Amino acid sequence: MNLHLSDQMAHKSLLSCFTLIMVFAFPPARASEEIYLPVGPNVSFTQVLELPFRTSDYRISYGDDPLQFGQLWLPGSDSLGLLVFIHGGCWLNEYGIDHAQAAGAALASAGYAVWSLEYRRTGDSGGAWPGTFNDVVAGINKVMDLAQYGVSTEQLALIGHSAGGHLAVLAGARSELLEVEPDLVVGVAAITDVVSYSLGDNSCQQATPSFMGGSAEEREVAFYEANPGNHGVHPVTVLLHGDVDQIVPLSQASLPGAITRISEGVGHFDWVHPGTTAFRELLKTLAREL
After folding, report:
1. pLDDT per position as a tens digit, 116-127
2. Which of 111, 149, 166, 234 fits as disulfide partner to 172, beta carbons 3.0 to 4.6 Å?
3. Could you say which DSSP state residue 133 is in?
4. Residue 27 CB contacts under 8 Å (≥ 6 apart), including other chains
5. How far apart are CA 76 and CA 109, in angstroms?
6. Inter-residue contact 128 to 210 (CB < 8 Å)
7. Which of 205, 208, 258 is nearest to 228 (CA)?
8. If 0-12 CB within 10 Å is exposed, 13-18 middle and 19+ buried, where does residue 260 land?
9. Is residue 43 within 8 Å of residue 273, measured between CB atoms?
C-alpha cells in the first residue's frame, strides 16, 4: 500500500514537471482574433466605435506627454511589413485613438505589425499646428526602437485616415524629418489641401482654422508648411477615397505625384471598418504596393 502511494506521488510529480515544461516551452496562445462580418457601405462613426477588437500587445511611449504613445500589434506569424497608422478626427482632441483600434487589430490579423499612434491634438496642451505634426514625426521615428519587440522596419508604410491622412502624407513628403525611409504612404479619405479644406462649411472643415491657429490669410506661412503638395510627395503615395464621403470631399483626393484610387459608394468611415469592401481595398493596396 505504501509502495502504491509512493508511485502515485511520483506520477503526480512527473505530471507537474511535464506541465511546467509545456507552459514554458509552449506559452499560452494569443487571444483569439475578432471576426468582422461583411457590412454594407457608408458605415457610421458609431458603428466603428462599437466594433470589438483585440487589445494591442504593447503600449509604448514616444515622448513625455501622456498622449505621446503608440499601440503596437504584432502579427500572429511572419510579418508582411510594419504599418505606422495615424488616426483621424479633424485634428481635435474630441476624437482619439479608440476608434482606430479595430482597424489596427484587423491589420495585424492580416499579417502586419501595426504601430498605431496617439498624439496631441487641438485642445491639448502642445497640440494643434505644429505640435500635432511634430508628435507624429516623433512617433514615426520611434519605430527605430521597436526591434526589441521583434519588429523590422525593412518594409514600412505610413497610413493615415482623414486628418491622420493629412499628417501621414505630409510626413512622407517631409522625409528630411524622418529617421526611417517609408516604402509606401497611404492616405485614406485624407485631407491633402488644408487651404481649400478650411474654406468648407462642415464641422471638420470648420475645425481647420483652430488647428492651424487662424485662417489661411492670417497664417499664410503655416498653411504653406502644412500643405503636403508644397513639399513634393513621397514617390509612392497612394490616395484611397470614397465617392460619397461627406466629411472629406472628393476634391481632396488629388495631389500631384500621388496615385489616386476612387471607390464607388464608399463613405468616410468605411476605411477603418474591417468588415467593409473599402477595408479590403486597403489590404489589396498594401499587398500590391508594400
Report:
1. 999 999 999 999
2. 234
3. H
4. none
5. 7
6. yes
7. 258
8. middle
9. yes
